[in-house]
Specification:
Layout (H helix, E strand, L loop, with lengths): L3 E4 L2 E4 L4 E7 L5 E7 L6 E8 L4 E3 L7 E6 L4 E6 L8 E8 L15 E2 L3 E6 L1
Parallel strand pairs: 2-11
Antiparallel strand pairs: 1-3, 3-8, 4-5, 4-9, 5-6, 7-8, 9-10, 9-11
């Protein structure tokens, strides 16, 4: 069964750091982190890693967040530094089984989603 399992969320003060981890059941051409402020709300692409080792970032997190992929453990990591209150969200790991499709930041690109992990940044 194809699965994505996130871990590492929590609460931190502004300026602090957190590391999110997504353990995947296999390899995917594109794997990413999204975030969602409220249930049913729009999911926003945060960062992605593709089969060519390209890294993509939303402008709001560029320079503060780093995405990486461990081939040996099929693990996607999002290192978040300089956290701001506006980074407070539920973060989801998402994976695409296809090598082509909509841009990385479009939820429609992904066919597999994790259960989400909450990140809270206080002032």
């Amino acid at each position: 069964q194809v699965r994505l399992v996130e871990s590492g969320g929590g609460s931190v003060e502004a300026g602090g750091s957190l590391r999110l981890t997504c353990t995947a059941s296999g390899y995917f051409p594109l794997i990413a982190w999204f975030r969602q402020r409220a249930p049913g709300g729009e999911r926003e692409g945060v960062a992605a890693f593709d089969e060519r080792d390209n890294r993509f970032y939303d402008d709001s997190v560029r320079g503060r967040f780093t995405i990486s992929w461990d081939n040996t453990e099929n693990k996607l990591t999002l290192q978040m530094s300089g956290l701001k209150p506006e980074d407070t969200d539920i973060y989801y790991c998402a994976a695409s089984s296809a090598s082509t499709g909509p841009p990385w930041y479009r939820p429609a690109r992904y066919n597999i989603w994790g259960q989400g992990t909450r990140v809270t940044v206080s002032t």
